Amino acid sequence: MNRRALLSGLAAQAALLPGAARALGSSPHPAPRPDGLWRRAVPELGELLRAADLGGQTSLAVIDLRSGLALESVAGGTPLPPASVAKAATALYGLRVLGPEHRYTTRLLATGPIRAGRLDGDLILAGSGDPSLDTAALAGLADRLRAAGVSEVAGALRVQGSALPEIRSIDPGQPDHLGYSPAIAGLNLNFNRVYFEWKRQGSDYAITMDARTGALRPQVRVSSMSVQPRNLPIYTYEQRGAADHWTVARDALGAEGGRWLPVRNPAAYAADVFRTLCGAQGIRVTLGPPLAVLPDTATLIASHDSETLPGLLRGMLKYSTNVTAECIGLTASTALGARPDSLQASGAQMAAWHSAQLMGAGPIRFADHSGLGDRSRISSLDMARLLSTHGTRTALTPLLKPYLPRDASGARMASAPAQVVAKTGTLNFVSGLAGYITPPSGRALAFAIFSADIDRRAALSRAERERPEGGRAWARRARRLQNDLVLRWSRLYGA
């Protein structure tokens, strides 16, 4: 067989092999793609904003952390309400002013000696503003009081919570019954909420109001509930002295259920629960009036320490707990010597502190530390810059919650194009997201996205603020925009 015949035979055999036609029609090295073709697969910014159809205003910015340059911005200098994204600013404020080793201490003190099981004086429960104090912690203090040999208190149980100002509601504009807008004080318990539980029994209802934590469910006397034969309003509230009196519409209850309701007098609530826990230990004690100042002669019996500040902040950012944000913000402002008497005054202190860290910052206003109030204002560019200040990423990244983008079908992406940690924020017709993007290239980015239809929000009545018409659909579109922007920036600047 000559050479020509051999080559012809091999070619004929190759043509019979699977995939041979594809192999013959392709190059062993892919042809170079036109410059920038991959960028054209990333949705245009204007296209994403038009698709969201949010109305109102949207402010967005993304910054390269290494250079400090803004890579992309739309209305970046427009101040908008940050909602709970403000908690990221509060976290940084607390860490820088108080330090990561800061703890809150709740103390149990006596104004007299203990003789033969009797405390000859008052028993004092003194708070320092701990936002995480719960019924289990108070039960531990009652255990230690019993271990100290106390079975009777000759004086009275008195509470002292002047470490922070007493604030009746984080946002008075919210409906009374919403558990995320309770009171704030120097002595807080269970995020200043009481659990209302009901169960139908014949033609009536069995009702409990308790301070539950885990298996502990002490009944509460300073908060009461009455079922009324009506349809609306679902709840009414009245404060009588130190007690909270609620009514609920019978038609709204159904067979059984439960929900958290806010507490408006945290010191009285803590005293009520602690007295019950002491009773469970066989310790007899009556309630006395609160103390404004601790007596110099008071001696320590026991104390309870909170987690260090990073642990408190991690929980705050994960669950967006308003009480934690307000207590930490107030504590930091107090540590700076401000002694604020309101959330507005403390928020102004925090805004001034952040403005001093940012050269050439636009107007920054914080009405509180949680973002629950809608009068706070910060631009996306200043929020991204705030996240870009020296050492901020190192401090906040371990505390922020991972953000997993969704694909076109709405499912969480199993392999996202970048690692993202962020803080979300949601109010009626207000939505925000801010945090850090770290693609495989290691090029770290800080970003912030704020959207708000302020006129639509302002038109809501107080009663409509729990579930306004159109609110959920608007929030879904805002979240979708945030998702698509994070994916855009991950792909566009991650190479």
What would you note in describing this structure?
Keywords: Carboxypeptidase, Hydrolase, Protease, Signal. GO terms for molecular function: serine-type carboxypeptidase activity. InterPro entries: Beta-lactam/transpept-like (IPR012338), Peptidase_S13 (IPR000667). Belongs to the peptidase S13 family. The protein has helices at 3-15, 20-24, 45-52, 86-98, 135-147, 266-280, 309-319, 322-335, 343-357, 380-388, 392-396, 454-458, 471-492, and strands spanning 57-64, 70-74, 105-110, 114-115, 118-119, 123-126, 152-153, 157-160, 193-201, 204-210, 223-228, 235-240, 243-249, 256-262, 299-305, 401-402, 419-427, 430-438, 445-452. Mean pLDDT is 91; it is low at 1-38. It has 13 helices and 19 strands. Helices cover 30% and strands 22% of the residues. A six-stranded antiparallel beta sheet has the order 2-1-19-18-17-16, with helices on both faces. It has a four-stranded mixed beta sheet with strand order 8-6-3-15, with helices on one face. Strands 4-5-7 form a three-stranded mixed beta sheet, with no helix packed on it. The chain has two domains: 43-101 and 308-492, 3-Layer(aba) Sandwich (Beta-lactamase), CATH 3.40.710.10; 104-305, 3-Layer(bba) Sandwich (D-tyrosyl-trna(Tyr) Deacylase, Chain: A). A hairpin with a 2-residue loop joins β12 (235-240) and β13. It is an alpha+beta fold and 495 residues long.
